[in-house]
Structure formats: structure tokens, C-alpha cells
From TrEMBL:
Belongs to the sulfatase family. The keyword Calcium applies. It comes from Rhodohalobacter sulfatireducens. InterPro entries: Alkaline_phosphatase_core_sf, Sulfatase, Sulfatase_CS, Sulfatase_N. Keywords: Calcium, Hydrolase, Metal-binding, Signal. Residues 31-384 form the Sulfatase N-terminal domain. Residues 485-508 are annotated as: Disordered. This is Sulfatase. Residues 1-21 form the signal peptide. It comes from the Bacteria. Coiled coil: none annotated. Its cofactor is Ca(2+).
Amino acid sequence: MRRAQLITVLILIFISFQIGCTNPQTEEKKPNILFFFVDDMGWQDTSVPFHEDTTELNRRYHTPNMETLADQGVKFTQAYAAAVCSPSRISLMTGMSMARHGVTNWTLYEGESPDDLYGPEDSAIIPPEWNVNGLAPEEGVPNTIVAETLPMLLKEAGYTTIHVGKGHFGAIDTPGADPLNLGFDVNIAGRASGAPGSYHGENNFSAESRGGSTVWDVPGLEKYHGQEINLTEALTREANAVIDSVVATGSPFYLYMSHYAIHSPFERDRRFYQKYADRGFSEFEATYASMIEGMDKSLGDLMAKLEELGVEENTVVVFMSDNGAPKQAPLNRPLRGHKLMVYEGGVRVPMIAKWPGITEAGREEDQYLIIEDIFPTFLEIAGITEDSFPDHTVDGKSFVPLLRNEAGADWQERPIFWHYPHIYDQPPYSSIRKGDWKLVYFHEDQSLELYNLEEDLSESNDLSDQRPEKVEELAGILTEHLRNTDADMPTLKSTGEQVPYPAELVND
């Protein structure tokens, strides 16, 4: 009997040992995440129509790999970002709204604001002190937002985190200038500056060839110097090489493919330029179109690499732009405005997402979302719960239900916000969208504009006089958000007092 019992115990120990050894092999592997982030790409700067009608710009540009991704995944017709780059990038890294994280304009030089360098002297307002030095991994740097970042949390969950391309998270000589300090295991070509010196390898990706500052030089790509290669292609080759090595280890990866394109300087991608010139485009138009197609080829090359390595079915791919098209580019009609403006042309961006086995191929999603939603969404995809960051305030909302086509009524009337208390390029503003309605508050003259986006996508019919009750409602919600986030607000030169909150205008 004792012998039989001993044999039974040994068998149970053996089975337990086998289960313990095999469980890691049978556990469902965490999905890889590829976030393909484009700089300054307008809502219509693609052959994929995001409007209900195909537009002239859709017919102008050629983005076949975006078309493929849209056919395989979900096209978001109402995706939003900030109107300028650094605020969008800090929102996606932290999940915070622009008003909360306080990086409300682009960053570059430590302690120096674009308002001071380029703003008009005759402005009626004084811009506030803001987080001009960007994002920081720890306390100690003035005028920064300190927060756990998306790559930090993914890294803790076992992901290899890869940064390729534009950083623009923190000012020069601050810790946030280096993506390695913000949770990335690998950094290729990322630094403080938000634009490249040149897109051409024969210029060493430097602005020196045009008499510019070395602050714009792209680091870490010396092996391509002197070669006739486009920066977009060089970054893609480097990204694919890293994917090769990480997949070989079996680790899940987060690849932040942050292209400098289509940001200025506007330099032709010679692989595609001539086809547009032959169609009678001006030099700028052909150059801009070639940069767009070069970016699209990068998307296709990365997707091909995923397929080659057999990880395509376990990789989430999200394509998005950080703001609207620059003022030099053709207007993204029917949208009004361009980059830096509060109108739809400045903040509505192209977005496509593919999650194999989850998203329905070729579906169109018309519910709106905003850049800070990326943070909680990617964490949910990776299986990371809010318990992992209990002290971190998140304004974003996971759009996993939208990916699953299971969104409830709570998405219909959700408020989203923009905040730009600056005088660089545009007058200062705050704004809210809730449902079909959008309220814009201009700080300098304390004016309010109201638009119904369902009926008036071009924002050409200000309804603030006709719908005072809607103005009051939205002004109240916007004011609550600005107060709750301790948003930086400008000061009136005439009185030395802070500009009033929008609710104070309608309640007087």
C-alpha cells in the first residue's frame, strides 16, 4: 500500500512538473503592436476616402498600402489629434488631455517657448507659463509633465519597446529628449527636434546643406550618409531589422514607427516624384505627393515583414497622423483650416486599425475618438489593467469596444477637448466636441463659435446666436474640464487678469 501510494505521489509530481513546464508554451501570446504615426498628414492626403464622397485629393494621391490596411481593418472617419505635434505625442504617451499635461505647443529649446520666439508683439494677451520642456521620466526638470509612459508600462509587461523616427517628447538637454529615458528599449533616430535636417542621405540628413542649424540633424543613421536614399526608406530598413531580431527572441514588441514625413522640409522622394510631375503637378505638389507615397511604401514594407516572419496574425497595426496638413499643402476640403487651427482641418486625421481576429475587415467606424485614447487602448490590448498605474490620471478612453464593433451608447455623447493658450501662428483657443456639436472659445477676444458637424462639416455656419442653450451647455462642460485639469490660461494685457472661462461669458 505504501509503495502504491508512493508511486501515485511520484506520478502526480511528474504531471505537475510537466504542466508547470508546458503552461508557458500554451499560454496565449500577447499581441505585438505596431503604431504607425505620420507627421502632418491631412485627413484627405490619401487615396483612402475618409469622407462620404471621394475628393479631389483622394484622386491626386496614391497610397495603395493604406488602401490594403483599410480593406483588412477598420477605417475611423472621425479620429482626432491635437492641432500641433508635441501635444499629440505627449497625449499618446500619457493618456492625458492637452489641458492636463500642459505641453500645449511644440517643444525644442529648453525653457524657450515658440510664443516668445515667433509670436506677435501686438497680441492682446500674454501666454501662460506652460510645460515648455515637455515630458520627463522623473521630477527635477522645471516645466515638464512627469508621468508613467505607454512604453514604460508595456515594457513592465514584457514587451520589447522600439522607437523609430521622430521623438519630439522633450526639449534639448532634458531627459525627455532621449526616448530611451521614456521607456523605450531601442531608439533609432529620435531626439528633441520635430523635423529632419534633410530627407536625403547624400545630405547626411542634415540641414547644413541649406545653411540650417545642426539641431535638425537626424542622429544614428551615419551608415546611410552620402548615399542616395530617402530618410523614410532608411528608417523603414532599420525598423524591419529590429523586428527581425526581436521576433527571433519570442518577445512581444511595441513598435512606435514615428515617421518624420510628411513634415517640412519639403524634399522630393525621388522614387515617386516624376510620376506626379508628369501629371502636370507643380514642383511643390509633386514633392508633397511623393513624400506621401514614400510614407505609404514604408507601411507596406513593414506589413510585408510581419507576414514574412509569420507574426502578421498576432500583430495589431494602427495608422494615424499627429495633426492636420500644414498650411503650405492643399486644403483638406470639405474641412476648414490646417495644422495649428482649431477647425477640423487642423485636428481631424486619418486613422486605420487592424487587429486580426477582432476587427471586421473593411468596416467603417463613425464614432469619434482622440489621440489620448491610444494609451488605454494599447494597454488593454496588452492585458494591462489600471491597477498597474493607480496614481496615473488617464483622460483617454479605450476604443477596444470600437475595434470589436461593440460600442455602447456612452460613445455617442462623450466630450473631447482641445487647448491651445498660445499666440504662435494662431490665436489662443480652447474647444469641446460633444455629440455632433463643437464649441470653440477664442481667448483673445472672448468670442464663442458653435457648429453642428453632422450638418456643417466645413464649419461655415456659426450657430452660437441661434442656439444659446447649446452654447451654455458646452461652455459649462469645457469650463469644468479646464478647471479640473488646472489648465494654463493666458492673461489679458489690459487688466493683468486671467482670461475668463467660457462659462463666465455666457452666465454674465
